[in-house]
Design goal:
It is a single chain. A hairpin with a 4-residue loop joins β10 and β11 (308-310). 30% of the residues lie in helices and 14% in strands. It has twelve helices and twelve strands. The longest helix is centred in the first third of the chain and has 13 residues, at 81-93. It has a twelve-stranded mixed sheet with strand order 7-8-9-6-5-4-3-2-1-10-11-12. It has one domain (29-374): Aldolase class I (TIM Barrel), CATH 3.20.20.70. The structure holds guanosine-5'-triphosphate (GTP), S-adenosylmethionine and iron/sulfur cluster (SF4) (2 copies). Residues 293-295, 298, 300, 312-314, 347-350 line the site of one iron/sulfur cluster. It catalyses: GTP + AH2 + S-adenosyl-L-methionine = (8S)-3',8-cyclo-7,8-dihydroguanosine 5'-triphosphate + 5'-deoxyadenosine + L-methionine + A + H(+). One of its GO terms (molecular function) is GTP 3',8'-cyclase activity. Monomer and homodimer. Catalyzes the cyclization of GTP to (8S)-3',8-cyclo-7,8-dihydroguanosine 5'-triphosphate.
Length: 376
């Protein structure tokens, strides 16, 4: 069964919505807060700036699928920086306070600093600066950290799946060394991209032996290390439940060496459950998307590289905002369309999946978009 809210709203409906002479005041830009059918506001916008990547992490872009014949998006499909900024402004008017640039590998997008500069000029409805951040594999971070910071990027999240070089090279599948990622982290910290977070996807039997070494390494460093449960996102990674190490077990392993205390979320709907080292060495987090779904507070919208709006990481279809941008629609009409789409949202894939047997899927096997396309 496909979730109704995952269906693409036909353009005709959007036109109709936009032509209604009295668009409800809360859908006019600036709009104030929207909420979806489950009462969830719109808070984060995750923008994918490229579907390409120089890594082939097995859990995300397995090389057998993402090979030289894979049809990546052509340049003409990509939203321009002006189009992205125009949409970002509309989302901010709807209440978005955080923008995360992702991909694919976002640092592969040429002149990304220019986009960051454009986004950094936007302010929230409360006239505060936006929280602008980026998730990266850090392969280009040492080289780019200073210019990203100068452009207005505030912080950065680096993905790193272990410290053991052989394990990491095997997981990224392009023989990329740990040392260069650590160098990227060091430079990013030096230029003031803070707080810096490190995300580690944990695959049981592949890199779970890296949990403790990673914790030891990043204690006292100011880096917030977060362990992510391996997810069944996309349709190509061959996900199996027995390769998921539940976060509860990650915490047990950590607690055996370092006493930990649970702490409150930074904000409603945060993906990570936070824990603090009892000895003051900093904090860690766990993102338990599989075993403790957090859909109830999910306030994240996702914009694909070609301008489709996705309401869930596990969606199979998006809403084509590029058609509106490149059609004859003004900002207010596009804001109305976004408002309607968000108000019709009822997505909660992970919660539904958790209620089913491990090999069943709440979308009835619909082909889900890939993480590298939608942005993680
Ligand atoms: N299932 C699910 N997983 C998510 C969602 N958002 C993020 N994740 C996963 O959590 C990981 C960490 O997310 P980040 O990109 O660091 O974003 P964040 O946790 O919102 O970041 P902060 O702003 O630092 O709290 C992602 O790479 C995804 O694997 C979501 O809405 N649903
Ligand atoms: C898709 S990547 C894009 C950004 C950048 N290339 C990177 O790796 O940081 C975003 C995040 O998704 C995570 N991710 C990808 N596939 C995943 C999966 N199957 N389960 C859990 N997390 C996944 C990655 O580890 C990364 O932290
Ligand atoms: S997780 Fe990031 S670095 Fe790894 S293949 Fe996916 S997009 Fe590339
Ligand atoms: S599964 Fe979908 S609805 Fe649930 S938290 Fe993730 S993105 Fe949000």
């Amino acid at each position: 069964m496909t979730n109704k809210a995952d269906k693409v709203i036909p353009l005709a409906d959007i036109r109709y919505a936009s032509r209604v002479p009295h668009i409800p005041a809360r859908l006019q830009a600036p709009t104030g807060l929207l909420s979806d059918t489950l009462g969830r506001p719109l808070h984060d916008l995750r923008i994918s700036v490229t579907d390409r990547c120089n890594f082939r992490c097995s859990y995300c872009m397995p090389r057998e699928v993402f090979d030289k014949d894979y049809a990546f998006l052509p340049q003409s499909s990509l939203l321009s920086f002006e189009e992205i900024t125009r949409l970002a402004k509309i989302f901010v008017a709807h209440g978005v306070e955080k923008i995360r640039l992702t991909g694919g590998e976002p640092l592969l997008r040429k002149h990304l600093e220019v986009l960051i500069e454009m986004l950094a000029r936007l302010t929230t409805n409360a006239s505060k600066p936006l929280d602008i951040t980026l998730t990266t594999n850090a392969s280009l971070l040492a080289k780019k950290a200073q210019s990203l910071k100068d452009a207005g990027l505030q912080r950065v999240t680096v993905s790193l799946d272990g410290l053991d070089d052989a394990t990491f090279r095997q997981m990224n599948d392009v023989d990329f060394p740990v040392a260069e990622v650590l160098k990227g982290i060091e430079v990013a910290q030096k230029v003031g991209l803070a707080p810096l977070k490190v995300n580690m996807v944990v695959k049981r039997g592949t890199n779970d032996a890296e949990i403790l070494p990673m914790a030891r390494h990043f204690r006292h460093s100011g880096v917030v290390l977060r362990f992510i449960e391996y997810m069944d996102v996309g349709a190509t990674n061959g996900w199996r439940m027995d390769e998921v190490l539940p976060s509860a077990q990650v915490i047990e392993r950590l607690k055996a060496e370092f006493p930990l205390t649970a702490i409150d979320p930074n904000y409603p709907g945060e993906t990570a459950q936070r824990w603090r080292y009892a000895d003051g060495a900093g904090e860690i987090g766990v993102i338990s998307s599989v075993t403790q779904a957090f859909c109830r507070d999910c306030n994240r919208a996702r914009l694909s590289t070609e301008g489709k709006l996705f309401l869930c990481l596990f969606a199979s279809q998006g809403h084509d905002l590029r058609a509106l941008l490149r059609g004859n629609y003004d900002d207010q009409q596009i804001a109305a369309a976004v408002g309607h789409i968000w108000q019709a949202r009822g997505d909660r894939y992970s919660e539904l999946r958790a209620a089913l047997p491990p090999d069943a899927s709440p979308d009835g096997g619909a082909k889900r978009v890939e993480m590298s396309y939608i942005g993680g």
